Amino acid sequence: MAAQVHHLSLRLPTTTSCISSKTQFGFALKPKNLTFDKPKRLFFSLRAMGSSASSPDSSTSQETGDYKSISNDEWKKRLTKEQFYITRQKGTERAFTGEYWNTKTPGNYHCICCDTPLFESSTKFDSGTGWPSYYQPIGNNVKSKLDLSIIIMPRQEVLCANCDAHLGHIFDDGPPPTGKRYCINSASLKLKPK
After folding, report:
1. 3-state secondary structure the chain
2. What is the pTM of this model?
């Protein structure tokens, strides 16, 4: 008796989108005709739409120490329990509880871990979210990367470019001129008034 071989051909969709609160995400598969002679795995990519890098100016970045090689034990000695949880373990403070969420004091906001200047008070705005929000960082002192810690809600994580401290997240619903909202935990910041 001869064995029968079954072939399966299909055309994959080019894109499926879903919108979550104020951010749109795209789930895409590259279109191609596939023929299966034996079981194969299908892979797809997931990327937050509108993800962006920080400002290109790197002239204000602080390079005073090798903060990236500091151990967690040393960070625990330098930081409060809350600061360590947020900056080193990627935690989030509760909305409307942080020291700077409603502060209007002129000055610069620095990284609590390495003292790198991150945001000017002139770029701070009231986003109504309960966290300090800024539309632009200082120079290239902030970086971002894809955060998939909540798989159904990918976001862009914001980090200090000097010491990799977790600061918060960036969204594409901010005011002009950038349209960005850097939503930052107060515990990751230190305000130096002018």
Report:
1. CCCCCCCEEEECCCEEEEEECCEEEEEECCCCEEEECCCCCCCCEEEECCCCCCCCCCCCCCCCCCHHHCCHHHHHHHCCHHHHHHHHHCCCCCCCCCCCCCCCCCEEEEECCCCCEEEEHHHEECCCCCCCEECCCCCCCEEEEEECCCCCCCEEEEEECCCCCEEEEEECCCCCCCCCEEEECHHHEEEEEC
2. 0.67
